[in-house]
Amino acid sequence: MNITIVGTGYVGLVSGACFAEMGIDVTCVDVDKTKIDRLNRGEMPIYEPGLEELVLRNAADGRLHFTTELGDGLDASEAVFLAVGTPPDEDGSADLKYVLAVAREIGSKMNHYVVVVTKSTVPVGTSRKVKAAVAGELARRGVDIQFDVASNPEFLKEGAAIKDFMAPDRVVVGVESERARTIMEQIYKPFMLSNYRMIFTDVPSAEMIKYAANSMLATRISFMNDIANLCEIVGADVNMVRKGIGSDTRIGSKFLYPGCGYGGSCFPKDVKALIRTAESHGYSMDVLKAVESVNERQKSVLFRKLSKYYNGDLAGRTIAMWGLAFKPETDDMREAPSLVVIDLLLKAGCRVRAFDPVAMDEARRRLGDSIIYCDSMYDALGGAGGRRVLTEWKQFRVPSWETVRRAMHRPLVIDGRNIYDAAELAAEGFDYLHI
Q1: CB atoms < 10 A from the CB of 132, how many?
Q2: Distance CA 168, CA 415 (A)
Q3: Which segments of the chain have a pLDDT < 50?
Q4: What distances in angstroms separate CA 272 from CA 14, 90, 95, one per listed residue?
Q5: Which residues belong to the active site?
Q6: What domains can you pick out in the chain, each with its CATH number?
Q7: Cβ atoms within 10 Å of 319's Cβ, excluding its own
Q8: Rounded CA gap, 102 and 98, in Å?
Q9: Could you tell me what percent of the chain has a pLDDT over 90?
Q10: In the chain, fewer beta carbons within 10 Å around the N or the C end?
């Protein structure tokens, strides 16, 4: 079986490598020639555990190909997956110009029946626009070639994407014909042999499912952050509260961990897009507006704690930061709380020394020389008057507290992910602030 995937970003590259691992012949297409040249040399444009090995093995075995030309794989493909970016527009809505540009190119080059599958996260109604774009090009050519559109949203967690794709808890596919359903079943059959669920819906419902799922998870995070802030005011322990409500089987324990706000490529963008989709139909998503507001406020909570600790006297102080990516096991800094905190620290006149296991290059690209990039977690502590943890990398969980204390000017730890024990740090001589 042959498929084409347009876009070699996070979703496209992971999807292509995993489909190839199951024996499908995959052609990955991208307009970025530099990225394609790097992939053909075996160089990864993103960090994701296990991805490099998967790409190199399947490329060497001849099942995974990289090109800048859509036509290279289209003639042999039974399905074309659209995995290009849908960045937020100025009003927060998803920008579909790349998706629709690819749809028009498919219509201008296809010569046989294919299923055009939206893998990118797109608002409800996008598949209708994709269908119109393909049909418009076919009409311009004066040819009558049948095709279908389908929606196949991804549910990959950065840092665990390979596992999520290879052993999915569900695969959602929106189709409009039995022919499209049969092809999508064939594509995903190797992944279903362990009785994972494949859920078929109509196309608009599949498009909505992705937004609704991410918005629900974002809601749980913001809810717990709001509860945490209230716990601090009234003297309750949010960790005990989390355990108490998480033991209710109707609620469960996942995504009930308070912290310094969510970031990344999905939650912020998808919450905004769903709010804008509702507004375009005359409806107000009041709960999600509150979710977004709480999250933006939460990203500055660590700065507020630091400022209060020093009575607002922050100018000239050196602050160490452990963790820059929005979560562990990724170099993704999109919408990361660290960016908000760094901006506030620099505006307050602080010097920032930072370390992240994999996101240093991405941080340099975003922040330039505005902060000091350190070679290790302990190197970042040199002369610091406070240490902040913003990303819960495993290597940060059990540090040598003696080494930490010796390196710091003042033994202050501000924990944005609640990974340390307050009593332990007090015994080690630290002032400890957390969520």
Answers
A1: 15
A2: 33
A3: none
A4: 25, 11, 12
A5: 266
A6: 2-201 (3.40.50.720), 211-298 (3.40.50.720), 301-434 (3.40.50.720)
A7: 27
A8: 6
A9: 89
A10: N
